[in-house]
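Input.
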Amino acid sequence: MADNVNRFLGDSPGRVIVKLIVVSLIVGFVMTIFGVDPIDILDGIRDFIRNVWERGFSALGRVGDYLLLGATIVIPLYIILRLLSYRK
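Output.
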């Protein structure tokens, strides 16, 4: 069982915990230097998802506009062509 845990973690649990603490301290220090808070990261992710959501639906709205504009030309032409071919 201990071998499986060591293999999964890549080292003994004690060493992994120490490595994670050291890396967390370094990353926390660097984030403090740059003035980044974890909340800023979460807000950025949320804003990104919201922008993708809103822009995606606005793109769908533009597709609908294009569809209606094209249909004003295509459907009457289709009807005219069908009527002309019906006579033959």
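The chain has two domains: 1-36, 37-88.
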